[in-house]
Amino acid sequence: MADNIGNIDAKEYYLGVDGVENKSFHVKGAEHLDWGMKNRLAKIFNEKSGNTVMLAFDHGYIMGPTSGLERLDIVIPPLIEHVDCIMATRGSIRSCISPNIDKAICLRIGYDSSVLYDDMSNGGGVACNIENAIRMNATCLAAQTFIGSSGEKNSLELLAKTVDAGVKYSIPTLGVVAVGKEMERTTKFFQLATRILAENGANIVKSYYCDDFEKVVAACPVPIVIAGGKKLPEAEALTMAYRAISEGARGVDMGRNIFQSEHPEAMCGAIGKVVHENFTDKEAYEFFLDIANSKNE
Prior knowledge:
By secondary structure, the chain is an alpha/beta fold. Helices cover 40% and strands 14% of the residues. The chain has a single domain, classed as Alpha-Beta Barrel (TIM Barrel). The protein has helices at residues 35-44, 60-63, 72-75, 77-80, 90-96, 130-135, 152-168, 187-199, 213-218, 234-246, 256-259, 264-277, 281-296, and strands spanning 52-56, 85-88, 104-108, 110-111, 125-126, 140-145, 173-177, 204-207, 224-227, 251-254. The longest helix is centred in the middle third of the chain and has 17 residues, at 152-168.
């Protein structure tokens, strides 16, 4: 059993060197998966760019009607055409999203404590089992993990059970790196957390952008999609997305930086330009301003 005594810090990441796998399929780490898994991953990740724009609006499951998400049925539907994948709970999708949509669905399958509880990192539990996920026609299953907190064991068990259930029915798993108020937000932490999730079977990892992000990406054998995090000014959010994609992220999963923008559709489009069309952050911000100004006229 390996331990951390005498462990040598990682240093050789082979930055800029392509892996020996993934020559016939465009999703990192999926070369040896079965057809069903690949088909679902191909719905999430654009074949041409290899990337994805995900729209997260699952905040209400712990926060209630947070700003921008007071009316899911009004706010979210106009944004869906601008993204590749939606990330939400089964209740919000069933009640507010038309079944006519042709987008990938990343279904949050766990529950956590609400914001009223002082410590939300207790690990949570299963809120939606695999049978319900299949009924929802889920493209992907999202399980949150709390590495380095009191809920680490419970959340890793939830991740492992989710991966096992998903493999049985060829549904990939998105492992979400959670960060609580007492948890680290360092490069070393994100290297540890993303690698743990991937080695426990996650097919995609959602994490945060950080210093030396290219090392985090290189050391993770599956695609990393960055979380948008707290609301930033649009120019700053686009810069974060641009840097992350430039340093190896395979997508952006944004929530508040889209639906709390004064112009959510314009922000969706600008993020898409960065993720899929190689726009710089400055070019994307100009695109955002052009769309926003046209709507104000």
